[in-house]
Every structure is written in C-alpha cells, then in structure tokens.
Write a structure and sequence with these properties.
The structure is a single chain. Helix content is 40%, strand content 11%. The protein has nine helices and six strands; from the N terminus they run E-H-H-H-H-H-E-H-E-H-E-H-E-E-H. The chain has a six-stranded parallel sheet with strand order 3-2-1-4-5-6, with helices on both faces. Helix 6 links the parallel strand 2 and strand 3.
C-alpha cells in the first residue's frame, strides 16, 4: 500500500477523458495530407503526453517537414468536431471523484481551450473549477517537472505529499522528477492493445510507484484517499 497524499493530480487526456484514440486518429489524418504516414502506436510512443508545440517540433525533427502555422488550428477544429459526437469520460472517473477525500486537480499538456472544451463536453468541468493547470503556465512542459511543481506551489502542497496519475511515460517522468508519487494508469481505450511489459521512464529504472488499469484499484492500494 502507498501512503495517502495530500493532493491528487490527474492528467486529463487518457485519465479523465477518453480522448487519446480520437486525438491520434485526427492527427494521423492531417499529417497524411503532408505525406507523413504514421499509426496509432507511433503516436503513443512519440507524442503521447506532450504539448502540441512539442509534437510539431518532433514532426520536423523526425520527418524534416515544417508544418504550417495554421496546422494546430486546423487540427483543433477537426478534433473538437469529433469530440462533440465521440468523446466520453474514462470509465470510473466520476466514481473516483465522488469518493475522494483529498483535494484534487488537473495538470495537462493540452492547451487551455482544449482542456476546458473537453471537460465541458463531458460535464465534469465544474468538478475542477479553479483547479485546472496547463503546460502553457510554465516554461517547459512534460517530461520536465515544471508543471507539477507549479501545481504543488499553487495548491500549497509539498511535492512529496502529491500523487500524480498519468498514462504517458513523459508524464510519469515529470512526476518522478518532481519528487511525487507516480501512478501509471492503463485504463484508457488507447492502452487496451498494450502488452503487460512495464513502461520505461527515462532516468527512473524502477518505474512508477504503482500501475492500475481501473480506479477501484487505486482505493485498494491507497485506501487513505477514500471517503
């Protein structure tokens, strides 16, 4: 069992909202117009958990293609249209939020407009009012620890008293680098075809503190967070 934290920090995409498959298919479709042909596994390995500017920078490094300035807006327009009919919450997240006995918040690499729209469409934005933090608030996004340290400071909780739930390796690396407990969540639809191999977290060969594929398991391993 793990010690109960004073603050639970949740990633948004793939932890609160089940958006990663939609996001990947949208990105794959747009990149194909520029002659870049990738699949969902490539997206998971190279782009999962990273901010959009980081993703476009990686596209240039990997494929020597400079995407146009309006690429992000075109991507967002397509994505939001898909979200309106396809976006759902991750199974069990509402029950988790109902049962939490400790403060909680969101820390995401997504842009403010995207995270707010996503939470509005799924009906949970009021649950995080005033407690939504994005990579736009710090100089360096995940895998740097900046965002999580910023959250700890704003929420007035010591980093070693925070627990982070993440679905990506870069997010877990950021959490561990910040000195926080890191939980790898594999319950999103984009994780269903993954094998059972442990995730590799750069600089942390021991990996995350805990791996769960459903939120009930979190209460089993960290009972002190439950009402």
């Amino acid at each position: 069992m793990l010690e109960a934290p004073d603050l639970l920090i949740l990633d948004c995409d793939g932890v609160v909202i089940d958006s990663e498959v939609i996001s990947a298919s949208t990105l794959i479709g747009l990149l194909a117009k520029w002659g870049i042909n990738i699949d969902t596994e490539f997206v998971r390995q190279h782009f999962l958990g990273r901010s959009f500017p980081t993703v476009t920078g990686s596209v240039y490094e990997l494929f020597s293609v400079q995407l146009p300035e309006d690429f992000e807006s075109a991507y967002r327009q397509r994505l939001f249209k898909a979200f309106e009919t396809e976006l759902t919450l991750v199974d069990g997240i509402e029950r988790l939020l109902d049962r939490l006995a400790i403060p909680h918040c969101i820390a995401t690499s997504s842009s403010p407009v995207r995270v707010n729209r996503s939470l509005e469409l799924t009906g949970v934005r009021p649950r995080f009012e005033g407690r939504i933090f994005t990579a736009s608030e710090v100089a360096t996004g995940k895998p740097a620890p900046d965002l999580f340290l910023h959250v700890a400071d704003k929420m007035q909780v010591a980093p070693d008293k925070c627990m982070v739930i993440e679905d990506s390796g870069v997010g877990l690396e950021a959490a561990l680098s910040a000195g926080m407990q890191a939980v790898w969540f594999t319950g999103g639809s984009h994780m269903r075809k993954m094998d059972r191999a442990e995730i590799e977290v750069a600089g942390f060969p021991q990996g995350p503190h805990l791996r769960i594929d459903n939120f009930e398991a979190l209460f089993e391993h960290v009972p002190g967070i439950m009402r």
